[in-house]
Queue: 3 jobs
Job 1
Amino acid sequence: MRILKTALLALLASAAVFAVNLAYAADAPAPAQTPVNWHAVIMFLIFVSITLGITYWAATRTKTATDFYAAGRGITGLQNGLAIAGDYMSAASFLGIAALVYYNGFYGLIFSVGWLVGWPIILFLIAERLRNLGKFTYADVASFRLQQGPVRTMAAIGSLIVVIWYLIGQAVGAGQLLHTLVPQMSYRLSIVVVGTLIIIYVTFGGMKATTWVQIIKAGLLLGGATLIALGVMAHESFSFEKLFSDAVNIHPKHIEIMKSVVPIGAKANPIESISLGLTLMFGTAGLPHILMRFFTVTNAKAARKSVLYGTCFIGYFYILTFIIGFGAIVLVANNPQYVVDVSKSILDLKGGGSMPAVYLAHAIGGDFFLGFIAAVAFATILAVVSGLTLAGASALSHDIYANVIMKGKATEKQEVWVSKMCVIGLGIIAVLLGIAFEKQNVAYIVALTFSIAACANFPILVMSVFWGGLTTRGAVAGGYTGIFGSIGLLIIGPTVWTKVLNMGPAIFPYDFPTFFVLPAVLIVAWVVSVTDSSESANKERAAFDAQKVRSETGLGAEAAAAH
Amino acid sequence: MSELSVSSNIQRNPKYLELVARRGRLAWTLSAIVCVIFYGFILMIAFTPGILTEPIAAGSVIPMGLPLGVGVIVVCCLLTGVYVYEANQVFDPMFEEIVKDASK
């Protein structure tokens, strides 16, 4: 406890130093001419102090491994629903979908829809079964009746690739956002601040602190987005017809923005569209930090309810981002205050492509509201990064260390200690990679993480739960087909091969490989399983009936902690 | 009674098998509906974009795709509600009954 107090004091002290530095920077003439946005800084500091307070509270109540990984399984359906929404509504989806709509119009809606339709599938097929079968990670479920070593290793590799790349995307986004809003703060310092905060949240407060950070952030983000959308609609006399026709008049592509079923300028391609749909839908159902949330609730009933709440919050939020994107066309485009050079392009914004939602907040509510939304966007990144770090650390400590290396003989204390070390390690890795990737093109990150989640994590999880014939060999062969198939096709695809590596026309013509890899994974897992006549395979098939009773009825499922 | 023997009691209970099949049918049917709606939307984008880009009324700039897309989101929320209601209110009490019987 004393370490925690010291750490918190140290952090508060450094926050104070940081604020003082900012004040000096504001007085100094160069390098930044822009005044400090004090509203943003103060609201950000308030958020940080509240979340650190919660971390302190959570730390005093985090004693066992179940507390650390699964918040003692005491989270209610509504709380988990908000936390799910918090985990899922990343800054990328808030700023990203609004920006997609701002540049491409209607096209952005396809992403909103695609990112939502995974949720009903999660509810119908996996949420309650995860809760009934698993302990801390989705690998618990995939390896329930299979050999622990090979299946957990495969699942942990899949989880870690997703987590680390997702982390890079979030870290780069955080650095750019903070640096744009508070130019006195360098990109590197922004990332170091994010890394330090999440290490403190997760190592001390575990899943309890992470969950509450998510809940607060989800509330702020939903509230903030509602206010922006209301501001837009008030400006447009609460008429959608007026909003859309004003946007059509202002946008340089005019009516094209209402007809854009593909990005403006791109050619329609059926296979690419279907592949994108598959990736968004099943990728959601294979994200390790999302799946982990189902172990925090009291029982299967609460797991189901949490998906219902989560889906409604996320759906509502996506409809708002669509209004926000169109509102930005009306209020932000063509405004010399936000646009780099109105005589060249009325769309190109100062500070880059993810700024439409942020500037819209300013256009509606001035500096104060800009500060609020900036602080919310930053809180969003902190919360999502915390969830990801905890998911990555649990794959390393619970799957690799406790079950593969120690073969289940590690004590709870050792396991939690290892995962705290992994949190620190992952936090440092995220900071270093975030700095290394500052100037890199990270456009492929969404495709990469969602493809691996959709092609490796999701199909193996579903097969292990529903198909008694799946054997260890089948699961491992299928899982690696998904991981390496996605990575391979992404590397030789247009985003990486042509745009990142500059190697000329891509060998594989599609951005999203799921259309080809997902069926391949199912076929490989099936063929390898049915041809597996080993004795262990027979035992694994025989163990399915008992697994099914537990997954369907919750008999023997991990109970909620007593305190 | 040990968990293992409770489990094997449940496996032999025909009511358990029937309930699992019924809830499974509900879950897979709803999944199929979501997939048909969503991939219907995606296939329209791919093959008949003209329908989606048609204005909802003469003189309006709003394309058909917009209410349809928002409709997909709303239907998804409603279907999750249907499943949660059925599973929590109808199926759970029956499953609890079966586990209780098997534990006797």
Note: Chain B touches chain A through 51 residues (CB under 8 Å).
Job 2
Amino acid sequence: MNHILEFDSIRLSFNGRVILSDIYMQCETGKITGLLGRNGQGKSCLFNIVYGELTAEEKSIRFDKRSIPDAYTRPDLLLFLPQFDFFPKSLTVARVFDDFRVDFATLEKRFPEFASRHRFKLKELSGGQFRFIQTYIILKAKSQFAILDEPFTHLMPLQIEKIIEVIKEEKENKGLLITDHLYRPIVDLSDNLYLLRDGQTHRIKELIQVEDLGYAILSG
Amino acid sequence: MKKIRLILLFYRNFWFASSLISLACLALFWEYGYSIFSTLFWFKIATLFIIYRYIGSYKAKEFYYYQNLGISKQILWIATLGADLIVYLLLLVQVNRFR
């Protein structure tokens, strides 16, 4: 059965400056929904509002037509990878896999660079490995939807390729909502693409719109 | 069980500082008795408030870890600060019995 996450009527302003005003996005399980937007347009704010972490003046967040304003209380519905590292660094790799009920052996088998790393503390990993593990766990943990805010940050190109593989694979199990400044993979991965500009979301039907809206030159 | 394990993990962030404060207060209570109970009680509340503000800011990013595992900030704070205060009060009662 397909599930739908949709949100609209979101209004956010800081000190009188309107950040978000005319938003509509819909995500489905089995699909990747990409969000593009320049720095400071409010992408992370929007994701935090959907997750329930940031309070908006108005908002409507619905899972299968049912309003759930505090999605952070329902990890079975929505998981969130923020743009910064958030796993406690004092924990071991084994502990975080255990907490999220994700199989470490599968990761180890598939990505040999993590072989016998399960006893390592997270602070002993490189920045890229640390980010990779957080993203991998959020992708693999059981949930209907996952928001990935800049999943490619701190990753080297080879790791980005690997995480893209996992994203494609996990698309079969959940709905993914992704944003990143590395926009080409987002454009390539997305089944549905939106662009956030001046507080409004624009549904991208033709790639030329991305250029017309002044975000990037894709034809080069 | 998993939730308790996560709450204990969060409590690890400040149990040492909080226990030191409690021990100092218990020592003072042993010395001066009920005459300073009210002062010690409010002192403990004040230090818990400082811990709440400091950890809330210093560990702000880590709250996403607990939330992704189904434990909200409210649950973390109520469980840890509540348990810490209850243990403190129980220890004060015990000190009073033996002094």
Note: Chain B touches chain A at residues 2, 6, 9, 12, 61-65, 67-70, 72 (CB under 8 Å).
Job 3
Amino acid sequence: MNAPVTAVLRRVNRTLLGLAGLLLVVAGGAVLAAALDLAVPSWWLWSGPDDVLLTAARRQRWRDEGWWWPTVIAVLGVVVLLALWWLLAQFRRGRLAEVLVDTGDGDAAVLRGRALEGVLEADATAQEGVAQARVALTGRRTAPRTRIALLLEPYASPGQALAGLGGEALDRARTSAGLAELPTEARLRAVKHRARRVN
Amino acid sequence: MTTPERPTVPPQTGGTGGAGEPGGAGEDGDGVPVLAGAGTDPRRVRRFWSVRRIPAALVAAVVLGGTGLLLYDVAAVRADRDAMSWRRELADDLAGRPLDDGLTVAAAGVTVLLGVWLLVLASTPGLRAVLPMRRAHPDVRAGLDREAAAVALRDRAMEVSGVQSVKVRMGRSKVAVRAVSHFRPLDDVRADVERVLTDGVEDLGLARPPALTVRVDRPSKKG
């Protein structure tokens, strides 16, 4: 699997969000069902509207067992660590510092990511109709990818701007870094401007 | 609007991916066939899916804070210190408050709604402001901001003579244009605007060009 970092993160985020949502729906729904006196089966956690969320007896059921507190602490610790990792993962941008260039003679050269980003930005901005371009290299050293944000000038054609980007700018970057392919995600926006009357 | 392959046998076949189209096909078919022939599928263009960083960060922070605090307190009690007062109060409350108490029911309701919201976030693409563009190059996946598309169409429509002002409402599958014209016959202006905008929509290079509706009015008399 050669999935880019953001794709992995997207899958992880969506799976965990879905699980959390499911958990909340089930827990809230179970309480609601009992609270509203719906016919709940006998194994239901709560028996009816007069029940309480957590009785003292239930809370203390395993308190005297030797394994109880170590287990509680271990589970809480694991959850804390996972949540911490999940939280920190949101702030990682996965930007590439360097790209490995195959020189063809057995040696490998290293190209600084910033340099390639700069060249791509200059090439993209040089096109007609592009006011500004921001490029971020992602992926891995041997298989880089790019994310490009183009800011279109007024009266530019988005279709043409994209064709120019895919045709020239990326082509040059690909050949100069000796890459077979350079998957790119581009997002096109427009400079805000007022309507101008021509007649 | 862009029916990928000409649907000769509409009902049974092709029920997999491109089933969303037939609705718009009957409306205004001119100008589109060319487009459909040229620009669609080798690979189907998919929508952009948001990574959902912000909701994930929020949920992670809440879980981290809650379990962290509980872990700290449980460990503190194990080390022969007193439990924090909130824990004792919470335990009393959980054991004392009946399920049909207003607060419990409200909290359960909010929990369910929150859960549904998270499920929606997890299963929908998001990024509704980004319209996927046609693949001009196999390596490049591009999306156009809805606002940018609206501005581009507005600029095109403003170039038609007789048009005084234009409002563009850009939807994900439809674009509604309202122009105000202060001279020339309305029908002529409408025909021109429609022609210009049909080209304009094509120029946006979208994977699924939106259906275009144009309305042209006279400026309202004020006074």
Note: The domain at 98-190 of chain A is CATH 3.30.70.1350 (Alpha-Beta Plaits).
